[in-house]
Every structure is written in structure tokens, then in C-alpha cells.
Specification:
Elements lengths: L1 H38 L3 H6 L5 E3 L2 H4 L4 E3 L1 H12 L4 E13 L3 E13 L8 E13 L12
Antiparallel strand pairs: 1-2, 3-4, 4-5
């Protein structure tokens, strides 16, 4: 009986570890989806990556103060700001994801390249930084709307 309980405990422990790994992968997919959706200017997809209200802080890039915003407000700001550009490309990596019972945090480095041909020949502007995400359990993470 003792051996069975030990075996059962090991199985449950492995199931929890597998579940945590799956949750981490889905979180990374959602973050990457946010960047890819932005690059493709798929604002529907971008909005689906966010909770209904977001503590949004881009002060390291734009100054000002962090604010509570809706996904629509965020997407509208990015849509307007990126509209003149011919291309946008984000890359992210070095993810560190921590998952608890009710929430998760994620950190990653990111690079964004903005391409706009101009007379100076300095057509690409590169931004390098890091991102901190806070995610709450209980709502589905975003899949691309047109994914099957």
C-alpha cells in the first residue's frame, strides 16, 4: 500500500509539473502573439491578448505616468503611432515565467525595429528593452482569431 501511495504521489507531482509547463508555454505564446499581432497590425488579435483593463506602463519609452487602459485604447495608440511605418518587427526572448495558483508573471527582453524609408538613408530605428507582464488565471489566453 505504501508503494502505491508513493507511486500515486509521484504521478500527481509529475502531472502538476506538466500542467505548469503547459501554462508557461501558453503564456509565452500569448506574449509572442502580442508582438506578432502588432507587427502584422492585426488589432483584433492584439486586443485579445489583453485583460479587459490593463495597468499599462510605457514610461521608459514615452515618459508620463502608467495608466489603467482598455485593450482598445492600447491598440488605437499603437495603430496611430505605427501607421506611418512601412514595417515593424519585434523579437522577444529570454523568457522567465512564474506561475502560481491564481496568476503568473513573465519577463522577457525585446527588440523592435521600425522601418520607414527616408531621404537620410537611416531607414530603420531599433528599440531595445525588457518587458514585465502580469497575467491572471481565469480567462482564456489569446489565440490568433483566424487560427483553427
Amino acid at each position: 500500500m505504501k508503494e502505491y501511495r508513493e507511486h500515486l504521489g509521484m504521478e500527481l507531482g509529475m502531472q502538476n509539473e506538466v500542467q505548469t509547463l503547459l501554462e508557461k508555454e501558453k503564456i509565452i505564446e500569448t506574449i509572442n502573439g502580442l508582438f506578432i499581432g502588432t507587427d502584422q497590425r492585426d488589432w483584433v488579435w492584439v486586443k485579445k491578448c489583453f485583460a479587459p483593463r490593463v495597468h499599462f506602463d510605457m514610461t521608459s519609452l514615452t515618459g508620463g505616468e502608467p495608466a489603467m487602459m482598455t485593450p482598445k485604447e492600447i491598440a488605437d495608440i499603437w495603430k496611430k503611432g505605427l501607421k506611418p511605418l512601412k514595417a515593424v518587427h519585434h523579437q522577444s526572448g529570454n523568457f522567465i515565467v512564474r506561475v502560481t495558483d491564481k496568476e503568473a508573471t513573465a519577463f522577457c527582453y525585446g527588440i523592435a525595429m521600425h522601418y520607414l524609408p527616408n531621404k537620410t538613408g537611416r531607414n530603420t530605428r531599433t528599440f531595445v528593452g525588457s518587458y514585465d507582464f502580469h497575467l491572471e488565471k481565469g480567462r482564456p489566453l489569446a489565440d490568433r482569431p483566424d487560427q483553427v
